[in-house]
Amino acid sequence: DLALPLGAARALRAKALVALATGEFLVAAELAEQAVHGAHAARGRLDLVEGELLLGQALVADGRIDAGVAALQSVAADAGASGAVALVDAAARELRRAGTRVSRRAGAAAVARGGASLSAREQEIVALVAEGRTNKEVAATLFLSEKTVENNLSRIYAKLGVRSRTELAAMLKSGS
Questions:
Q1: Which of 71, 92, 120, 133 suits a disulfide with 56, CB 3.0-4.6 Å?
Q2: Alpha-carbon separation of residue 34 from 41, 47, 103 (angstroms)
Q3: For 21, left (φ over 0), alpha (ψ -120 to 50), or beta?
């Protein structure tokens, strides 16, 4: 064992990145899994989440889509709960590449943290929608076109893993 367990976990993560970049997906997944275990044992929270992100990427690349998506959903939820916006966005990007979106659990975590992955404008729109305002009313309040509000809502839905105003309202209610 190395005297610096987080250093060892980071070294494993670096090796996994190289393996992933060179197309050795199975090796990348194995190294990423070892890095996750090392970070967990050393109680390195950020290293753990970053390792899980890499593990999810490697699993998806290796064709183990379900396992990869599960790992990426976990990253999105954990990162959202702790306010790690860059990791939420990275997980969401990888989930889109895998043909899915952030789960409601992860989206709820982001809402609970003040919409961690939402821009300031998107947060304004969410607040007005939560009040029950229509797109037309939101547009008038924020001096935007209805089309701009619709486009923003589409992005908000994708980021939070919801498909409608009803799901958004339910998430906001449960996140409060």
A1: 71
A2: 11, 12, 26
A3: alpha
